[in-house]
Amino acid sequence: MTARSIVLELTRLEAAHLAALVTQFAELVDGAASDGDDPAIARLVPDAYDDVESAAEFRRLTEADLLDRRRDDAAVVLATLSDTAELPDDLDDPALLEVVTIELTPSEAGSWLRTLAAVRLVLATRLGVVHADGHDAGDPRFGIYDWLGYRLDGLVTAMDGDA
């Protein structure tokens, strides 16, 4: 039995915005070693233990590897977006709304899932969202956060084979 691929459809504008978000996320992860007090990074690599010393030791042993994997996943997302995320010079060009298809292998889909979830987690931290429904859906500051949730839901559904 061969693994099936996952097909995503995005507009060029969505692809470009997503590529910019993932690039910013990769830069955040790259700078994580120099900024140990960032709550978004702390949320990406949460404490494994309640005991402060055990949590610090676990973090010391695992944080770099976890962040490397997040960086690698982000690189996969950017590579799969590369052809679709280029915008035309004229921002009034109807090509911005052209729907593009991205076909992902199961491995690439896993990288997308982990990256979109991590970017959403960073946004949640920055926006002060603690619970899934902890924001006003009508507040425009949460548009990207909600869009990522929509895309994550679709990706999970496709990966589960229900789409």
Could you please describe the fold and organization of this structure?
By secondary structure, the protein is mainly α. Helix content is 58%, strand content 7%. The protein contains five helices and two strands, in the order βαααβαα. The chain has a two-stranded antiparallel ribbon. Helix 3 (52-81) crosses helix 4 and helix 4 (106-127) runs antiparallel to helix 5 (143-160). The model has no long low-confidence stretch (mean pLDDT 87).
Question: Helix and strand layout, with pairings?
Answer:
Layout: E1 6-11, H1 12-30, H2 39-44, H3 52-81, E2 99-104, H4 106-127, H5 143-160
Antiparallel strand pairs: 1-2
Helix proportion: 55-70%
Q: Based on CA inertia axes, which overall geometry fits?
A: globular
Through-space gap between termini = 19 Å
SS field, number of helical segments: 5
- Mean pLDDT, rounded to whole units? 87
How many strand units?
A: 2
Quaternary state reads single chain
> Major beta sheet, specifics?
2 strands, antiparallel
Radius of gyration using CA atoms only: 17 Å
Strand content: 5-15%
Spatially, the strands of the biggest sheet line up as: 1-2
Topology as a string of helices (H) and strands (E): EHHHEHH
- pLDDT < 50 runs, ≥5 residues: none
What structural class do you assign from the helix and strand content? Answer: mainly alpha
